[in-house]
Amino acid sequence: MIPSQPTIDELRALQLARLRAGLKDVLRSNAFWRARLTEVQGWDDFERLPLTTKSDLVTDQAAKPPFGTNLTYPIDRYIRLHQTSGASGDHPLRWLDTPESWEWWLRIWSDHVYRAAGVTASDRVFFAFSFGPFIGFWTAFGSAEKLGALAISGAAMTTEQRIRSILELGATVLLSTPTYALRMAEAAKDIGKDLTTSQLRVTIHAGEPGASIPTTRAAIEAAYTATSFDHSGMTELGPTGHSCAQRDGIHVLESDFIIEVLDENGRPASEGELVATNLGRWGMPLIRYRTGDRVSITREPCSCGSPFPKLVGGIRGRIDDMFTVRGVNLYPSQVEDIVRGHPNVVEFVIEHRHLHHMDEVTLLVEIEGTNTSTERLEADLRQALGVRLGCRVVPTGTLPQSDLKSKRLVRKVD
Ligand SMILES: [Zn+2]
Prior knowledge:
Layout: H1 8-29, H2 31-34, H3 43-48, H4 54-63, E1 80-83, E2 94-97, H5 99-117, E3 124-127, H6 138-147, E4 150-153, H7 159-169, E5 173-176, H8 178-190, E6 202-205, H9 214-224, E7 227-234, E8 238-242, E9 249-252, E10 257-262, E11 271-278, E12 289-298, E13 310-312, E14 317-318, E15 323-325, E16 328-330, H10 332-339, E17 345-355, E18 358-367, H11 375-385, E19 390-393, E20 409-413
Parallel strand pairs: 3-4, 3-5, 5-6, 6-7, 17-20, 18-19
Antiparallel strand pairs: 1-2, 7-8, 8-9, 9-13, 10-11, 11-12, 12-13, 12-14, 15-16, 17-18
Helix pairs in contact: 5-6, 7-8, 8-9, 10-11
Bound molecules: zinc ion.
């Protein structure tokens, strides 16, 4: 257990003790980590361990299909297989869990994510999610069931069927991506249903940073008259954090992860890339894993009483999703914060074209209603971002839709 307010040294000592205990099996039988790791005594040893990237894992799985060499136990010990969504066009990574690591993941949902959102055994939890091989909300589903709540799958349903189920079954908690929550609210209007009259009081979102983006969260909360929470996690890493009652960021769970934020030179920083080591998934662990997520971290106490540091504003975006307009570096979440303040914009994509050695960035928008002027949106973007970002209206239904992660930045080379 982590004391309520440990010093950083106490915290590191607890984390390293847990890491050393877990590494015993790993260093004995896991070929991937045996080739990369040495014994870890103190924090200095830990900081000298190499960083691991997704491409290291993809390369390993490609060389030793289908699961690669990051396996601590014989294959019979594993009970679950999931894979990354491949939403960013990467090769999907396959990931295996043992009964113990699956339990670890379910416990984090019940002890931290659901607890922070006030979800209890009396709730009816609806999952607007497809439940394919992507890990998505599988652990959230299992954990809701263990909590004693009623877990309702919305898999293999149309958006309309999901809306009707939420209303008819009296669902009190919704889990979905933020974008899908907004799309479902739009679709409800089209079929004459009003989701503000539903029993939903809490929504929990993952897969995209939306629930930590103020205007996106406000739009979801208005559409459902519910309180919206954010959750961060990755198939290959596990559930790293969740937002609290303050809802101005994500607490990262130092009870179950060693959390580092590193600048571009790999030095500890308050702003940079989130690097995480899981402490409960020894069958297929990740040590000093570069998440590719851009974050800003604070250890200032939070009014919710959480002992954990906070990623201010949640996950700000992907490190490699940065784009440049007239010399100004921007991230899709900054654009989303403005776009969601315009409820008539139902879908958007930032298109980055590299054209005759020139970069051209255009915001493609789907607009509902008869007034399709983008003048006010362009003015708001210019004011907030400090540069002019051109908008182009595209017909409704043109932009890709998904109940998994939405890709907001599309790069094209002509
Ligand atoms: Zn808090």
